[in-house]
Amino acid sequence: YAWDANEEYLFKAMVAFAMRRYSSKSTTQISNVLLCNVTDRVSFWFVVTDSSKNVTTVPGSEVEAAIRMNRNRINNAFLLSDKTLQFLKITSTLSPPVEPSTPVWLIVFGVVLCLIVAGIVFLIVSGIQKHKK
Question: pTM for the whole thing?
Answer without folding.
Answer: 0.60
